[in-house]
Amino acid sequence: MKIGIVLYPTFGGSGVVATELGKALALKGHEIHFISYNQPVRLDHFHPNIRYHEVRPFHYPLFDYQPYELALTSKLVDVTRYEGLDLLHVHYAIPHASAAYFAQQILKTHNIDIPFVTTLHGTDITLVGKHPSFEPVITFSINNSNAVTVVSQSLKDDTLKHFKIEREIEVVHNFIGHDSYCAEPKAEDLARKKEIAPNGERVICHMSNFRKVKRVEDVVKVFKKIRDKIPAKLLLAGDGPERFKIEQLCEELQICKDVEMVGNVQSAQEIHCISDLFLLPSETESFGLAALEALASGVPVISSNAGGLPEVNKDGVSGYLSKVGDVEKMAKDALSILESEEMMKKFKKQAYDHSLNFTIDQILPQYEAVYSSVLEKEKID
Prior knowledge:
By secondary structure, the protein is α/β, with parallel strands linked by helices. The protein is 44% helix and 17% strand. Helix 6 links the parallel strand 6 and strand 7.
């Protein structure tokens, strides 16, 4: 198949999953065309079955904001016509699904029928999509997609609750390629951990875009309670609008010397390989890809029970779940793992074993089945 994949090219989970999906499809012999305004951050090497097409919005003084959706629509039309695409797969509803629908209608005037699959990832539904200015467009785009998938049962429930959906929605969980993660740290990883924790301190980590919904302040509060009981270090990977508040809180709690803010990292496994525990106390998570990445590196997860997290983090097995904001329980659960070498070893193994339920080998055939079903229906129609 020749598949056009539309995505946000940044560090966010939807872009990561879309890129890794395309790379895996290319390895199976499909021809993949990534379409976005920048090269995806995970598109890090050349492959003969992969192409990248840049969307360049038109700059004109009349427009206060660049008309990206129109530029994307035109690019989808051009790439479909000149590359002979069989299918479009758009990740994230806004504005990708509506652009795909618009392109589909334009292409019909050229006697080209191009179906499109929409994958919903989270904030396009749970936050942005519910805004009155977007809701009618999102509802229309979902109902007029040729197929719709979501990354968790929780997100499917939210979509059906908040929108008037008149079509089937299929749950296809997120995935990771385990070859990129380190269930067993290498010598260089242990050396880096020694630099971070020279006296054998436990290393706790968190990774996010530092938005309010990630509740990074809870991460710091949980860490303080951990450090009050055992020697520990905290690695905060990422950046965002809440960073200044986090720095202030570290100063107030007098833990700055044990907290290192490392900024955005290209490779999550570089952090996970030297960590003993991952904290994710989010207020909302459609799936929790960051948690899954930790599990794949054998790092237990202490998380909230928000959204799709219970589908990823198995309570008492790969880590523990708590109600949003329950800092006391999170700290208690964390210490129950960290204080014992035996428990650490047990939970690390269980974390990795549980992550094997979300391998690319298991998820990829589900997407291929969606594609085949859509194309078969297109032939019948």
